[in-house]
6-phosphogluconate dehydrogenase, decarboxylating
Amino acid sequence: MASGTSDVGLIGLAVMGQNLVLNMNDHGFKVAVFNRTVSKVDDFLNGEAKNTNIVGAHSLQEFCALLKKPRIIILLVKAGEAVDQFISMLLPYLSPGDLIVDGGNSHFLDTRRRTKEVEAKGLLFIGTGVSGGEEGARHGPSIMPGGSSEAWKLVKPIFQAISAKANGEPCCEWVGEDGAGHYVKMVHNGIEYGDMELICEAYNLLHRGLKLSNEEIADVFTQWNSGVLNSYLIEITANILKFKDTDGSDLVEKILDTAEQKGTGKWTAMSSLDLNVPVTLIAEAVFSRILSSMKEERLIASKTFGSYSSNVTIHDKNAFIQDVHDALYASKIVSYAQGYMLLREAASHYGWNLNYGGIALMWRGGCIIRSVFLGQIRDAFLQSPKLSNLLLNDFFKAALLKGERGWRNVVAQAAYMGIPCPAFSSSLAFFDGYRSERLPANLLQAQRDYFGAHTYERVDQPRGKYFHTDWTGSGGRVTSNAYKL
């Protein structure tokens, strides 16, 4: 094998890695590959990569020698310790200016650390989110790179060539410094959790509430997919509901109702708490998965309490289906608004210069949350780059007000029917809280001052001036430190 002739190298030949390699090969890039289990290299070259320009190596030294300088090495290995191990093993064979790209689902704080560590060695580092699953990797994913700014020019031709396209524009653009790329991917995954939970709640309301068959619900989702709810997840949900098992019955009914997760939704919820951003819908989506996993305990509780019955009858099924549609759309708007609130706060906290409209474009194609809806988000930030909240944009404001009646009716009817819809409910509660000029936090602050002398501000005094009251007549004048979240 000729040394120094490959444009890019990739380590990690699981499904995503193999498909990205084939994608790059299709676009004219010569790719070198390596895998810790070396036999996978030969299997790949003799299988899916046969009769291509892809070359393989049986050691890291041989792998690095195959690459043009400055070397571009993409890691698609399990997040965590494996990434650090491969970085350490690669260092002896790399030269100043070479680039390591972590394309896995790494935590953004790890990416921040790795960027500093790798740059200290004279090398470049990128942590990039890659979304779209195996199909996206093969035919065009959404790619969200961030890290060493000088590295963007090295990977831009490759990443933008292999990425999905939305209206001819690549769903890949530079996100920002150090961990920005993986942070944006994390929030993408959190929003994905929210979208999936909302769709499942809509399905549950139609299935349990209206007693519609899976086939009927599939038809409803197919109809929804031709309008404002057009999205990949709505599309595949309709397909799932129509899918039959080998005996001709609905396969979805045979799937155990315990959801699993890989952690990115939880990371999003935890980051929102760290940054004091009320990302309530994504948090509810995570908690719903956790509650579903308590299957054995739920079985006991179902026998203990039975199911709630209020003898509610939905007389106009078509009207209620439209209400569920409106509730789903309005809740989706709130979910994305919360996600963008988190991105804005993270950018301020970590010093990132995020392009919010550009992020919407990157999510517009290739990724799991791709939808027509994202085009409106991009337009909102093009109109007002400093927009503080998506809910204040004229388009989304009008959409919320239009769907508000149906949204409220769905949440109320679900409560009467005993059908849980935590994401619908929490998004409506957030909307009502966000639009409230006055919340009962005045009483909360009084309680805190009463039992802990935590002080409070007054509406008739300037902000930042704190007061304490001796509520019982036996307290002192010493107060606890006042601080803001």
